[in-house]
Amino acid sequence: MRAVVYSENGPSSAMRLTERPVPKPRAGEVLVRLVRAGVNPTDWKVRAGLSATLTTPEATPGQDGAGVIEAIGEGVSTHVVGQQVWLFMAQHGQPWGTAAEYVTVPAHKAVELPAGASYDLGASLGVPAMTAHRALTSGAVERVAAGSFDGLTILVHGGAGAVGNAAIQLAVWAGARVITTVSSAEKAALAKAAGAHHIVNYREGDPAAEIREIAPDGVDQIVEVAPAVNNDLDRAVVANRGTIAIYANNGGDELTMPLRATFSLNLRYQFIQLYGVEERQIRAAADDVTAAVAAGALRVGAEAGVPLHHYRLEETAAAHDAVEAGAVGKVLIDLE
Fold it and tell me: Locate the Enoyl reductase (ER) domain: which residues (predicted)?
């Protein structure tokens, strides 16, 4: 099989395309023939050594993907050969990921792709959708399902990003009123396509006043991508006993706040790193995301606010560079 590998942490040029034997699934695993692989910021950060150091002779990048079950390991009764699946956290806990024609993963990381869902969509779920799910369920509501967020107002920062877009789509499906912040008219159009009810350009006017006009009692939940720069705004618009769910450090690595003023809000700050989320929460995320796909609530493509950018496997370095440069939408690797 063809696979992209790197033997040391470094820039995208450290990766090379090579031939490797098709792996065999061990007990509890499945072998997946990949049709699409998704590329996320975590992929280039792991490869570069910013969030992990290579401890094996070589590694294949990629956490997300979609494809077809080709073989089943001993003890697996949940899957069948020929089943279409989407993958999450494929490279976590093992050196091989989805930038290859085949990959083996623990069976629970290969989730059935609902009928009619494209491989593009399947490969776009994983890290973005499951991170969005955890951000949305870190407050009072533990599951995302139709009607579960009725009466809640959710603020999503960075609504044109992959996690932000998934959070908007999931929250709208669950019945929430969704406000999102963006930095340009172009990104506002993407957030609108995702289904956001109210869009605030934080570079114009007074975003706190605009959000408070929409939600006089404050917002119940905030999905936060840039806490270092947004914390004052968040505290100004969050409802008492609200939750601020933080999944990234865009805009700075240090967060400071006035403690006494924050005490009075009875806030909950929930920091999220997908690889440390509890197993039951991961299972719930996989189930809820799949249900949202089956319901048509999670979509990709420009019409859903997620422009798609396709690369061939031999162009994986360029795909990583595109994500690192802040490509708007979803970067995918085509494997057939």
Answer: 10-333
